[in-house]
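Tokens help. Consider this.
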Amino acid sequence: MTWLDQLTPALLVAGVMTASVVLYALTGGADFGGGVWDLLATGPRRKAQQRAIERAIAPVWEANHVWLIIAVVLLFVCFPKAYAAIGTALHIPVTAMLVGVILRGTAFTFRAYDTGEGASERAKGWTRVFAITSTVTPVMLGVIAGAVAAGGLTLDAEGRATTDFISAWWAPFPFVIGALTLALFAQLAAVYLALAHDGQELAEDFRLRALLAGGLVFILAWVAWMAAETGAPQLKARLLAGHGAWVVHGIAGGAGLLGFVTLWRRRYGWARAAVMLQTTAILLGQAWGQHPFVLPPNLTITAAAAPDSVLVPVLWALLAGSVVLVPAYWALYRVFRTAGRQAGD
């Protein structure tokens, strides 16, 4: 039996979900990271930094959420047992994340378009809401991912969550993953912004922030690895088994090192490629560590999947939708990134 024979509809849908999460991290994650740097903007170019962040985020932040929506809808439709278990046992961090997404978008919009009396004072409040939710939301996203990977969601014979509402996620390992997620998003944002302002003083500001965030990613990755010894032992064992796991580790480590070198030498195009590859490898590493489970340690992808009569039409719908979505999304980025660069000039 070849590997192609093992590509069941359930595995294909799981692969699309993984790709959606990766794309969300590389696009929407960078938007959250921009909010972090908006909160931490300092120095004589503080206002210029915030304007640069706003110009970068404004045209695309809503569109970037399409990848998260795809992943959540596929989980709901194609893996309903997993969706129900996550929604039950992790409903506190899930709710916090969703509220953060909504408040962040609301604050960003009101800050930009509120022109009534007292708008400048209200803008300060909206700026704080935008920055705080940009920081908290990625942490909650990482906490959810960490809790799932740790295998803390216990299920009964019928596949219903038996965990209480706290213990599955209120532990060191999920919060370390939450902190790592925030650092990754901040690194992505800083590198993207440095590239967008190459040759300007702002590029140096964001370059230093990217180096700082990259150092935090390195430290938190090691902390997560140590915390997995007791917090996610099955995940750690899986990440030590097989050549594929070590290939993922090598790519993530090599890309991280390349990112530091290229940032140090101000090769921002290469730095962007390196940090994108690093983030992708880290996320694929977690997916590798969880396979073949959608909810470790006892709910596999096959057991959690809806019938093929549901999965196959979903796959055809995804294929048809991608014909429209992918070119439209690419055109959106091309148009507004070019306009943003011209506005910055």
Q: What stands out?
A: The CA atoms of residues 134 and 232 lie 27 Å apart.
